[in-house]
């Protein structure tokens, strides 16, 4: 209950402050990330040219780095923007999309981790395992494995996340059927969402943008990660429940953004399935 109250207050704070969230992200989901940032109450900017990223991140309250569609030009921009954000105390979140799928992609994620102090790393289980150094299988940019609420795999994933968070002094957020968020001390799990969300390109990227928006108004990075993940899961559930028999994933994506826009304290308190250990 306390965590949900904190999330609700943070949501109100976000909408009052309208933080600028600088994205260096991928061209598959860039429009979705911009729109969901607007819906939650943030102000997105999607600047990735090396000639302006230092200046742009200086104006921002948070920086989102997403490696979904990698190229050498934007990698340089990610590092320059990330290091400038560190100089200014601006929180940075990394979404290591598809880490483990190719050596290049994995190497770039690790280079970012080594050269930029990260407030949060959000990925699926395969991506986080890869970055931690555990052999795993990745299917394209999607996770090849998941965890259920009652399984030994959940305990293993929690322990891995906590160890990784302590090693990097950051927040590790693993999203899936059960979401795991930890700063190495506190441990949260979230059981909101619906499996149909995996049928839409970009739900993970949009979740990262939500976390980035909350990071823009909170010094508690674990709470910001929890807020973004819970908001996405709750909205996905509500969006799915609203579908008619003739509607599908196209409508679902629009409904998720609508539900984020209309998210409020009452909905968070009624729908949030959050556990703290």
Automatic annotation (TrEMBL):
SUPFAM superfamilies reported in the protein's UniProt record: Ribokinase-like
EC annotation from Swiss-Prot or TrEMBL: 2.7.1.50
Biological or metabolic pathway of the protein: Cofactor biosynthesis; thiamine diphosphate biosynthesis; 4-methyl-5-(2-phosphoethyl)-thiazole from 5-(2-hydroxyethyl)-4-methylthiazole: step 1/1
Reactions catalysed according to its record: 5-(2-hydroxyethyl)-4-methylthiazole + ATP = 4-methyl-5-(2-phosphooxyethyl)-thiazole + ADP + H(+)
Residues binding ATP, per UniProt: 122, 175
Highest taxon, organism lineage: Bacteria
UniProt-listed InterPro entries: Hyethyz_kinase, Ribokinase-like
UniProtKB keywords: ATP-binding, Kinase, Magnesium, Metal-binding, Nucleotide-binding, Thiamine biosynthesis, Transferase
GO molecular function: kinase activity
The keyword Transferase is annotated on this UniProt entry: yes
Positions with a binding annotation for substrate: 46, 202
CDD domains (UniProt xref): THZ_kinase
Family to which this protein belongs: Belongs to the Thz kinase family.
Role played: Catalyzes the phosphorylation of the hydroxyl group of 4-methyl-5-beta-hydroxyethylthiazole (THZ).
Record protein name field: Hydroxyethylthiazole kinase
Organism: Clostridium omnivorum
Chain's gene name: thiM
